[in-house]
């Protein structure tokens, strides 16, 4: 059914985020040499990362400094860039010189959410976050000003203790619908939805044809190398960290995959080889 949108060819090797060492380069590669430690984002439709050797484009490859572990770097490409794109789309300045906003990050314990909370705080925003009870302390440690357990009435309704509506919501779960998000938005508030469910897709389409000031935008990752470099630098400077759920040896990649699709990881799942 999805073949027209994702023209994968089988057999398909999944995974787009890799960190590793360069063993061979093509004749036109100039910025990278054999032996370099790198982190890369592979093409989403081609994948190829879940393998001992991956073919990557120089355009999506960034040098990994020694201070950044390969696991920390490997977490960054898709999740870190999606979080970064959400915050850049509202003109966040990551040195804190921009305009502060009141932001909600849902599923803040996930891969994207855990980076989004940290980047929002670097931007000087006030951050409310949702996650499960077991991750409240972790999400607070990432900088969130207030954390709501999504299994409580406050977490379900997304209401913070001050009752203040959000200027922006970075929605990182399919589990929250527009009918819950909308009343929590301030007058010109915007939802940046990275995981839209059907109701939110409809809200996005309706928003194009109506004059409602409250909007839902769908975020589809389009950032590349420069932004990945920016994230790697933040990790090197100790301003951003990768939350690692678990590490699996290559032989147990099947278990790692099952854990990933289960939707209950805390941060990123890393496969080592
Ligand atoms: N648009 C894009 O370009 C883009 C890029 C990357 C990812 N995505 C999508 O974005 C979504 C998030 O990705 P991810 O990798 O960050 O997810 P993830 O790591 O799988 O998120 C899992 C975490 O979310 C928490 N969670 C689940 N439902 C929740 C809810 N209703 N409220 C609050 N927390 C909840 C879980 O907590 P518990 O274990 O306690 O339940 C778990 O810690 C996925 O649907 C993914 O496909 C989109």
Characterize the structure shown.
The chain contains 9 helices and 11 strands. The radius of gyration is 19 Å and the shape is globular. The chain starts with 16 loop residues before the first strand and ends with a strand. It has 273 residues and is an alpha/beta fold. It binds NADP nicotinamide-adenine-dinucleotide phosphate (NAP). NADP nicotinamide-adenine-dinucleotide phosphate binds at residues 78-79, 82, 106-107, 109-113, 130-132, 135, 150, 172-176, 194-195, 219-221, 263-266.
Q: Which percent range fits the helix content?
A: 25-40%
The number of domains: 2
Q: Could you tell me the strand content as a percent range?
A: 15-25%
Ligands: NADP nicotinamide-adenine-dinucleotide phosphate
Care to count the β-strands?
11
Key traits:
ER; 2 domains; Quinone Oxidoreductase, Chain A, domain 1; Chloroplast_QOR; 6-stranded parallel beta sheet; binds NADP nicotinamide-adenine-dinucleotide phosphate; alpha/beta; 3-stranded antiparallel beta sheet; oxidoreductase activity; 273 residues; Enoyl reductase (ER) domain-containing protein; Rossmann fold
